[in-house]
From TrEMBL:
Name of protein: DYW domain-containing protein
Pfam families: DYW_deaminase (PF14432), E_motif (PF20431), PPR (PF01535), PPR_2 (PF13041)
Family: Belongs to the PPR family. PCMP-H subfamily.
Any one GO MF annotation of this record: zinc ion binding
Keywords: Repeat
Boundaries of every DYW domain copy: 606-698
Superkingdom of the source species: Eukaryota
Keyword Endoplasmic reticulum: no
One GO BP: RNA modification
PPR repeat spans: 89-123, 190-224, 291-325, 392-426, 427-462
Length: 698
DNA sequence: ACGCTCCCTG
């Protein structure tokens, strides 16, 4: 045997070598027993050549050649030979089934398996794993069960690898009881058997079972490896159990598993889900070998924890390091653009997405809908939404929330109802979106109805965000006592929720309630800057300058400072920021002149400054002057000066727009014939022809 | 031959 193979090697490695027909025949026979003797694709081709030369019509030799080609994953060569066979022998079938499977052609792999059965050939332990893998990939439980039946009849279910493949198939098809049963009946199990059943439990929500099996495997003399760890780390990520996660991290370090990409990505994800972004960045930084997935993990971690700039920085770094972004990279980074309202960057990424052919990805489309809506382009958002094939609840929610933020409550409601008609059950976020829509349009009855029925109809109990939306709904509408009652029914109302009511007290000038609400806030959240600023403004607004000053004093003593009010506008790819009374913009004087001209036209149109919103203890003339300095007006004036007539002006402001500015901008939109879109800290206002989309609720 | 990680909506 050894000598025959030696001759064969000489033949194969030296294309010029000559052999007799008898020699070749013997060699091929030897090869039939040991196809693995062929060690490269070019040797495989030499073998094929010898067969063609000496005995092209032998099904046995052809099958051998197919088998050898298959071992090198050469599907096309295998297929060419396979098609020459009238009735392929077992070896040919087995080889072609495996070859299809390793090339990811699962449908064809299964079709060949069915052909093989139909032709009366008996499959064996060498094909079942591939066939089961194909069933798992194609989510074909019925065929998988049929294959299992076949395996049992042939007595192959004791075969280790076939058993492992069965466990995996049932786990992927969420047939956990079956998967467990196969595991139990196996006579020999290896670490793959354990890992497969552990991963199956972990991914299907049987977290405790998965963890119990990790403990049990020690009793079977097996130690958790990289597969075990990357399967169970997501459990701690989901439970936000950073202590257990850290324990695993320690184990990972002790066994030197921290060099593994999968383990590293799971650790990065675990830490960021537990809001420990610093730790996930640390793990990322010491991971030398990085792939798209580890980059995605750290980028998503930053974005989900509100570190948008860091996320963008890492995204750029990834591109610089020549790591090709995948669809997940884009759906991870897009929310950063949405939150930062960096429309231009969002558009650039959108272009990149289209060039990559990712624009039909539902995750990406949903993030684009959200990004465009949050950047003020609700029509573009709607256009993208309309083009999504296979919309899921997230896509609908993004669109509904977009409409809500822009004050288009009727559209939001009809979308919500349409979603339900399409058989999609809303989750808690979708309900938050519809409540927000009602809130921004002052639709008390509709909002109340959705709120009252959510538990009964959708099986979702009101959470903080739903109470917040309802408190906001009552507050915006001026139903301050209803809001107070509702919040009081909560077991543990947060400072944030009380703050919604507090800002309504400011709008509706209810000082007594404001004091009561403020004390509630300071009880649970003494550091709440926003609430103290609001309270001081409420006092000032009421002319109670002494109390206002006292609140400011307390803030100063506590060492807290409020963020200055500011507005910004993007013109020609550059963001221009305006802070109230700040004169640093290069066109400051020109902007002032433009504002004065506008002011005259506004006064001709009947505008009277509402100085009640100026919270400084100065005379009326000065108050009027202070109003001109409001940052959103300067941003708008600058936008009008620096863009062609008719261009929509888009301004973003970090705090609520004031009543006087709201009136002024309505007039400005009419005077200059422009659509002006202003986003404040809670929603969008579309000013057009003297009207605003908010209908005076904001 | 069979097993593992990442992504969207408030």
């Amino acid at each position: 045997m050894a000598s025959t193979l030696g001759v064969l090697e000489a033949l194969l490695r030296n294309p010029g070598a000559i052999a007799t027909k008898l020699e070749v025949k013997q060699l091929l026979k030897a090869l039939l027993k040991r196809p693995g003797a062929i060690t490269s694709a070019s040797e495989a081709k030499q073998l094929h050549a010898q067969i063609l030369k000496h005995n092209p019509s032998s099904p046995l030799y052809t099958s051998t050649a197919i088998c050898v080609y298959s071992n090198f994953k050469l599907l096309n060569q295998s297929l060419l030979l396979f098609k020459t066979l009238q009735s392929p022998p077992s070896l040919a079938y087995k080889s072609i089934i495996k070859c299809y499977a390793v090339n990811g052609r699962f449908v064809e792999s299964l079709a060949s398996f069915v052909d093989m059965r139909a032709s009366g050939n008996t499959p064996d332990h060498s094909v079942f794993p591939s066939v089961l893998k194909a069933c798992a990939f194609l989510l074909d439980l019925r065929l998988g069960e049929a294959v299992h039946g076949c395996i049992i009849r042939l007595g192959m279910d004791v075969h280790l690898i076939t058993g492992n493949a069965l466990i995996n198939m049932y786990a992927k098809l969420q047939s956990l009881a079956e998967s467990e049963k196969v595991f139990e009946t196996m006579t020999t199990r290896d670490i793959i058997s354990w890992n497969t059943v552990i991963a199956g439990n972990a991914q299907n929500g049987l977290h405790e079972d998965a963890l119990a099996m990790v403990r049990e495997m020690g009793g079977a003399g097996l130690k958790p490896d990289i597969f075990t760890l990357s399967a169970i780390l997501p459990i701690f990520a989901q439970y936000v159990d950073v202590d257990k996660g850290r324990e695993i991290h320690g184990y990972v370090i002790r066994y030197g598993f921290d060099k593994d990409l999968y383990v590293a990505s799971s650790l990065i994800n675990m830490y960021s889900r537990c809001a420990r972004v610093e730790d996930s960045i640390r793990v990322f930084k010491i991971t030398r070998q990085r792939d798209t997935i580890s980059w995605n993990s750290v980028i998503a971690g930053c974005v989900q924890n509100g570190m948008f700039d860091e996320g963008l920085r890492l995204f750029r770094q990834m591109l610089k390091d020549n790591v090709i972004p995948g669809s997940v990279s884009f759906s991870s980074i897009m929310p950063a653009c949405a939150h930062l309202t960096t429309l231009n960057l969002g558009k650039q990424l959108h272009g990149y997405i289209m060039r990559c052919g990712f624009d039909d990805n539902v995750f990406i489309s949903s993030s684009l809908v959200d990004m465009y809506a949050k950047c003020g382009h609700i029509r573009t958002a709607g256009w993208i939404f309309g083009g999504i094939k296979g919309r899921d609840m997230v896509s609908w929610t993004a669109m509904i929330m977009g409409c809500a933020l822009h004050g288009y409550a009727e559209d939001a409601i009809s979308l919500f109802e349409q979603m339900k008609l399409e058989g999609i059950r809303p989750n808690h976020v979708a309900i938050t979106a519809i409540l927000t829509a009602c809130s921004h349009a002052g639709m008390i009855d509709e909002g109340r109805r959705y709120f009252d029925r959510m538990t009964e109809e959708y099986g979702i109990r009101p959470g903080l965000e739903h109470y917040a939306a309802m408190a906001d709904l009552y507050s915006r509408k001026g139903k301050l006592n209803d809001a107070y009652q509702l919040i009081s029914t909560m077991t543990t109302p947060t400072g944030t929720i009380w703050s919604l009511l507090l800002s309504a007290c400011r709008v509706h000038k209810n000082v007594d309630l404001a004091e009561k609400v403020a004390s509630k806030i300071f009880e649970v959240d003494p550091e709440n800057i926003g609430a103290r600023v609001l309270l001081s403004n409420i006092y000032a607004n009421d002319g109670r300058w002494k109390e206002a000053a006292k609140v400011r004093m307390t803030m100063r003593n506590m060492g807290i400072r409020k963020n200055p009010a500011c507005s910004w506008i993007e013109v020609k790819n550059k963001i221009h920021t305006f802070i109230a009374d700040d004169k640093s913009h290069p066109l400051h004087d020109e902007i002032n002149i433009a504002l004065c001209e506008l002011q005259e036209k506004m006064e001709l149109a009947g505008y009277v400054a509402d100085t009640s919103e100026v919270l400084h203890d100065v005379d009326d003339e000065q108050k009027k002057y202070l109003l001109y300095g409001h940052s959103e007006r300067r941003a708008i004036a600058f936008g009008i000066m620096s863009t062609p007539a008719g261009t929509t002006i888009r301004v973003i402001k970090n705090i609520r727009i004031c009543v006087d500015c709201h009136t002024a901008i309505k007039l400005i939109s009419k005077i200059v014939g422009r659509e002006i879109v202003v986003r404040d800290n809670s929603r969008f206002h579309h000013f057009r022809d003297g009207e605003c989309s908010c209908g005076e609720y904001w």
